[in-house]
Design brief:
about 350 residues; two-stranded parallel ribbon; alpha/beta; single chain; eight-stranded mixed sheet
Length: about 350
């Protein structure tokens, strides 16, 4: 298959592209390589895919020196004309949209970046699919859409109308936009609500990287809500395996869907929402203790109040993944953290 993977300089997009290439798919990568965090990490990921920094040009494909079936476009999703040209030129079989302005807390500081990338950019993806007859679209949503909901585990059939950050609101809007295009144009759309993804090549603004760097350099870590938080930590390989199952099995219409009692995660249109999480939340303090154990060093801790836009707990119900694919993420936190720390030591010495 010829697959567009947006966000290939990003954490999940990089790992997905690598796995697809290794199984023989043709992968066209796209990323604007913005400076939300250290671009050297982004270029490092691209280098692993055979995309050399010095060869990258705006809008022109850069060919991989490692994978015969891979090339890369430096492009912004919000650039309407460039995106239209890309879709018309390449004629994709599948689109997997993982590019987005990430980060809950940063959305309080720079809200317009989220509208440009996550709403305008996603609109360009949908229009590209519609105008070039791409029928299979999967895209990243987020566990953040559950917002103020405290009924756990979070189910895809739960109502999600009360987000607490603009980032989450843009992800919820993606789900609604996707359903509209599934209904109007028959595009098979699948939204994936990711739960706290971690692992090698992870983002430097997230806890594993922040905490590891601080602990190894004798700095205190900030522990928000005084440590009274929990997360459904999900290892990157489990996330990628879930995404590939969705790519290979695009959404279909739910023949039992009842418009008078509408089930939220599916539709009479070819539309579906899945959670991808470990289905086993751990407290923030358990996470820190595991990291300390792997590093062989105790953390200095600054206990802090809750931050605006954050939620106390996340916990994924993944029964739909089990029912539809016989699949459930299962990497233990200790094993995932060990792999992350090994990578961190190799990269940052």
């Amino acid at each position: 298959m010829k697959i567009l993977v947006t966000g290939t300089a990003g954490f999940i997009g990089f790992h997905l592209a690598q796995k697809l290439l290794e199984r023989g798919d043709e992968v066209i990568g796209l990323d604007n390589i913005n400076d939300y965090y250290d671009v050297n990490l982004k270029y490092g990921r691209l280098k692993e895919l055979g995309i050399q920094k010095e060869s990258i040009e705006e809008r022109h494909p850069t060919y991989s020196t490692k994978y015969e079936k891979h090339y890369f476009y430096k492009m912004d999703l919000a650039d309407k004309e460039a995106m239209q040209k890309l879709f018309k030129t390449e004629k994709f079989d599948v689109v997997c949209n993982l590019a987005a302005q990430a980060g809950v807390r940063y959305s309080l500081e720079n809200p317009h970046a989220y509208i440009d990338s996550n709403v305008v950019g996603f609109m360009n993806i949908l229009e590209g699919c519609r105008n070039t007859d791409v029928k299979n679209l999967c895209y990243a949503s987020s566990s953040s859409v559950y917002g103020l909901n405290t009924s756990q585990p979070f189910k895809t059939t739960d109502k999600t109308e009360h987000q607490v950050s603009l980032y989450a609101a843009t992800k919820k809007s993606n789900e609604m936009m996707a359903h509209t295009y599934s209904h109007l144009y028959g595009i098979q759309t699948t939204g994936l609500r990711f739960f706290t993804v971690y692992g090698p090549w992870g983002r430097p603004d997230m806890a594993p990287m922040l905490f590891t760097d601080a602990i190894l350099n004798d700095r205190a870590i900030n522990v928000f809500n005084n440590g009274k938080m929990s997360r459904d930590f999900t290892y990157i390989d489990d996330i990628v395996d879930g995404v590939i199952k969705v790519i290979d099995n695009p959404a279909t219409s739910n023949q039992q869907w009842n418009a008078q009692d509408p089930e939220i995660s599916s539709s009479s249109a070819p539309y579906k929402i899945y959670n991808i999480g470990n289905n086993a939340p751990l407290s923030l303090m358990e996470f820190i203790e595991t990291l300390e154990e792997v590093l062989g060093k105790k953390a200095k801790k600054n206990f802090m109040p809750m931050q605006d836009g954050d939620v106390v707990s996340t916990y994924a119900d993944v029964q739909d993944l089990i029912n539809d694919f016989g699949y459930k993420p299962d990497t233990k936190l200790f094993d995932g953290i060990r792999e992350f720390v090994s990578w961190y030591n190799n990269i940052y010495n």
